[in-house]
Amino acid sequence: MTQSITIRKPDDWHLHVRDGAMLKAALPFTAHNFGRAIIMPNLLPPVLNVKDAIAYRERIMAALPEGSNFKPLMTCYLTDDTDPNEVEIGFKDKVFTAVKLYPANATTNSTYGVTDIRKAWKVFERMEKIGMTLLIHGEEVDPEVDIFDREAVFIERRLTPLLKAFPKLKVVLEHVSSRIGVDFVREMSPQLGGTITPYHLLLNRTDWLGWGLKPYMYCMPVIKTEDDRKALVEAATSGDGKFWLGTDSAPHAVAKKLAVTGAAGLFNAPVAIESYAKTFAKEGKLDKLEMFASLNGPKHYGLEPNEDTITLGTEEWTAPEEMKVDGPEEKALIYRGGEKIEWKVVARKLAHVHTATCGCK
Ligand code: DOR
Ligand code: ZN
């Protein structure tokens, strides 16, 4: 039986689109199906201030396909030295939507990250005052901590005291990857929200490691147990307003993914909304997809949902294995590449078509 569903155009609240040739190649996949995306600032060097963010936003706009109305929402990369005034200026001038906290050395391009969250106390104070959201890569980097426990230990050692110290600061625990993470977001709601990736919903660590090592399933935070995956599916498909879509789509050159020390990150933008639809359909919860993908995120940020719509239908297609990159990185491995994808975006509808006389910008 064929199925179809029309939802308001989703937004991606956690996206890596990189820069240069990789940006040019990767961005159209997101721009086709998403209205807006929170753009991660972990470039090399990172997006550290208002000037960097304006310049990066311009490069993103220049890389958009002709006629696209996609809107990038920029973030500021938090370091030990971030100036609260810079953050406030960027927020008030509508350049920054949020600040991103990477614990130093937790993941790709995080060496400039925060070495001790107490060093950023003044920035948090200011953000709390101006109502700006803090996005957190919630993993403890203490080498004594097992990689599968990094999220849980970060919650206990860092996030709990942070939320207590700044009870009005809006915080998002990004790419929630464990049952402990899900339970914590629920407990700390409404102060805390959580984004969930398509691959943490579909994969467990046996998929990643159990049948030969699958380097393209390697990401931070790592994919965890079946019990964790089930908790994430339950949270995403429940309709609970504290969970929303963030793909963490993160393209890497194939050579970097397959190297002796492989790069963390799954490039899932080409199959993202289709993969979420698969999860929701399997649970019999397609009616909750729009909340998760298109409504809960904007609500958190105090934004209107998109007016455009997309229609997803059950129409099988095969995902490409790689994306060509017109530069030294040559190609990026695509998540679910070569697999039969059950869902397809079969229609996209603009709420409003601009004309010479319509009067809007
Ligand atoms: O797996 C990941 N890749 N996790 C992150 O947090 C960063 C991302 C990247 O930039 O490649
Ligand atoms: Zn990320």
Write the layout of secondary structure elements.
Layout: E1 4-8, E2 12-15, H1 20-33, E3 36-39, H2 50-63, E4 71-77, H3 84-92, E5 96-101, H4 121-130, E6 133-136, H5 150-165, E7 171-173, H6 179-188, E8 192-196, H7 198-202, H8 205-209, H9 226-237, E9 243-245, H10 254-257, H11 272-282, H12 289-301, E10 309-318, E11 322-324, E12 331-333, E13 340-349
Helix pairs in contact: 3-4, 5-6
(4S)-2,6-dioxohexahydropyrimidine-4-carboxylic acid is lined by residues 16, 42, 107-108, 137, 219-220, 250, 264-265.
Outline the structure in words.
The chain is of the alpha/beta class and 361 residues long. The protein has one domain (11-305): Alpha-Beta Barrel (TIM Barrel), CATH 3.20.20. It contains 12 helices and 13 strands. Helix 5 (150-165) packs parallel to helix 6 (179-188). The longest helix is centred in the middle third of the chain and has 16 residues, at 150-165. The model has no long low-confidence stretch (mean pLDDT 96). It binds (4S)-2,6-dioxohexahydropyrimidine-4-carboxylic acid and zinc ion (ZN). The site of zinc ion has 5 residues, from loops.
